[in-house]
Amino acid sequence: MKSFVAAHHKRDDVIASMDNLVDYFDWCQNCRNQLLHAAKYPALFHEKDTMYLTKRKRKGSSKYGYIKLTLQEIRDIAEKVRAGVVQCADLSIYLRHEGVPRHKINAVYWPYTESLPAMLIVPKPLELALWSEADE
Prior knowledge:
Blueprint: H1 2-8, H2 12-36, E1 39-40, E2 50-56, E3 64-70, H3 71-96, H4 110-113, E4 129-130
Antiparallel strand pairs: 1-2, 2-3, 3-4
C-alpha cells in the first residue's frame, strides 16, 4: 500500500499521512489477531475487571503465551481502533476534495478540507508473555 501511494501521489505530506494510517492499521490488525485468536484462561486469583488470555506464540507453534488485560485496557484498544476508522474517513474526505474550489464543496465538508488530519500515534503492539523462561 505504501509504495502504491508513493507512486500515485506527489505531496510528501499526503504520503506521510497515508503511511501513518497504514502503520496504525497494522497495529489494529495485531490487536485484533491477539484478542480474537486467544482463548480465555481462568485466573489463579480472581482480579476484578481483568481478563487472562492464552494463545500460541505463532501459528503452528507448540509454545503458548498469555496476555493479561484490564477492562480499561480493552476499552482503550477499542477506542484507538475507532480513532483509526475516523482518521481514515477524515483523510478520505480531504483527498476527495483536494484541488476542488471551495465554492463547489458542500459546507459540511469544509472543516475536513482545510488541512490534513494530524497523524495518529501508533501504539506498541500487544505482545504475548511467555509462560516461563524455559519457553524462550
